[in-house]
């Protein structure tokens, strides 16, 4: 029997606000898709992203627009060619995975041909602020093994140095969110090298990243806004050393797993990331995290409260999801 399709918009307050180069958020607005067959419920969560012209209302409407197709037997394999990559497809794709796992009594990792999931160490994020504010945040998190530092405004070299001084032993990656200019790139990359930064995420705007082809670097440069799905891969050659796989960009777990496989075949390293969302959005990404060199799935830790049940965090270590949550 085909499942019933339900969609709802949820709002989750953020603890203290979350600032990147594009502005400050005080809540995460997510869209949850549910596939209900009367016995089992498959769930998927996405975070619509204004950077790509998405709104919660528009994403919810797009998902509900497939009600007839779901009743006619649409599945996740057909979904890849039914909707474009993006948040709407992600929520529905992950709901299909969850429903399939619950109906079969198997874990999603098993359905994907993966061994049982292993715990993963995630970044913890330091929000964009003054060098002094960011250094103080880094001191509070200095025991975390991996810090992710939000950048993208004038004074980033000072921010980088301040965070490194405050957390001398931590591994550090930085994320400029397209906020650097071509002419300032060499100096900022030198600041990263001096501070032993191991990865710089999306330093330039996605439509201005050809300059990376001419840049000598000793720090890994990772594509985020420049990489969505497998169609993005040809443009990354010679510019990036890694890509950040986010299910809201790939349009779900189905495409994310295929993207990771093809990216590795081209020599790119893998980072798995997230938007600010609950554990329901992070759980499917744990499958991709198994093959990633950098894991950034701390979205639930940025919220005032996560959903129950949620992922279990022991410091920086995330345990695999319980079936009651997803998959």
TrEMBL record:
Its cofactor is Mg(2+). Mg(2+) binds at residues 175, 201, 224. It comes from the Bacteria. Residues 131-222 form the Mandelate racemase/muconate lactonizing enzyme C-terminal domain. Keywords: Isomerase, Magnesium, Metal-binding. It is an enzyme of class 5 (isomerase). Binds 1 Mg(2+) ion per subunit. InterPro entries: DgoD-like, Dipeptide_epimerase, Enolase-like_C_sf, Enolase-like_N, Enolase_C-like, Mandelate_racemase_C, Mandelate_racemase_N_dom. Gene3D superfamilies: Enolase-like C-terminal domain (3.20.20.120), Enolase-like, N-terminal domain (3.30.390.10). Signal peptide: none annotated. The active site is at residues 150, 246. Its EC number is 5.1.1.-. One of its GO terms (molecular function) is metal ion binding. NCBIfam families: racemase_DgcA. Belongs to the mandelate racemase/muconate lactonizing enzyme family. This is Dipeptide epimerase. It comes from Lutibaculum baratangense AMV1. The lineage of its organism: Bacteria, Pseudomonadati, Pseudomonadota, Alphaproteobacteria, Hyphomicrobiales.
């Amino acid at each position: 029997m085909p499942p019933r399709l339900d969609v709802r918009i949820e709002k989750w307050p953020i603890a203290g606000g979350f600032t990147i180069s594009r502005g400050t958020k005080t809540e995460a607005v997510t869209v949850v898709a549910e596939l209900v067959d009367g016995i089992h419920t498959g769930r998927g969560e996405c975070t619509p992203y204004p950077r790509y012209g998405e709104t919660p209302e528009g994403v919810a409407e797009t998902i509900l627009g497939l009600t007839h197709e779901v009743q006619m037997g649409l599945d996740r394999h057909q979904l890849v060619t039914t909707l474009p990559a993006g948040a709407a497809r992600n929520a529905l794709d992950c709901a299909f995975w969850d429903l399939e796992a619950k109906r079969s009594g198997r874990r999603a990792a098993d359905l994907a041909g993966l061994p049982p999931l292993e715990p993963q160490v995630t970044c913890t994020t330091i929000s964009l602020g003054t060098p002094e504010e960011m250094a103080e945040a880094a001191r509070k998190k200095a025991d975390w093994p991996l810090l992710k530092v939000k950048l993208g405004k004038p004074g980033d070299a000072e921010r980088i140095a301040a965070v490194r001084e405050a957390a001398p032993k931590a591994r550090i990656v930085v994320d400029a969110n397209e906020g650097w200019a071509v002419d300032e790139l060499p100096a900022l990359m030198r600041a990263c090298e001096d501070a032993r930064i191991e990865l710089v995420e999306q330093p330039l705007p996605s439509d201005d990243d050809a300059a990376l082809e001419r840049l000598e670097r000793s720090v890994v440069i990772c594509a985020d806004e420049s990489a969505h799905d497998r169609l993005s891969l040809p443009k990354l050659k010679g510019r990036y050393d890694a890509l950040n796989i986010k299910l809201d960009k790939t349009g779900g777990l189905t495409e994310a797993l295929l993207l990771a496989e093809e990216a590795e075949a081209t020599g790119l390293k893998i980072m798995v990331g997230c938007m600010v969302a609950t554990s329901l959005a992070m759980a499917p990404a744990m499958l991709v995290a198994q093959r990633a060199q950098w894991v950034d799935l701390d979205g639930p830790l940025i919220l005032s409260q996560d959903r129950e049940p949620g992922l279990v965090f022991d410091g920086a270590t995330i345990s695999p999801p319980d079936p009651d949550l997803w998959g």
